[in-house]
Amino acid sequence: MKYSNELATAKKAASEASKIIQKYASDQSFDIDLKGKNDLVTDADVESEQKIIQILQQAFPDDHVLAEESSAKSTLPAGRVWIIDPIDGTTNFAHKFPRYCVSIALWEDQQPKVGLVLEVASQELFTAVKGEGARLNGKEIQVSKNTDPSSSLIGTGFPYRSLHLVDNYLQLFKRMMDKTHGVRRPGTAAWDLCNVACGRFEGFYEYGLSPWDVAAGSLIIQEAGGVVCDWEGGENWLFGERIVAGNSSLRDFLLKEIQDCFEPEQLRK
Ligand code: IPD
Ligand code: CA
Ligand code: CA
Question: What topology does CATH give the domain 149-267?
Answer without folding.
Answer: D-Maltodextrin-Binding Protein; domain 2 (3.40.190)
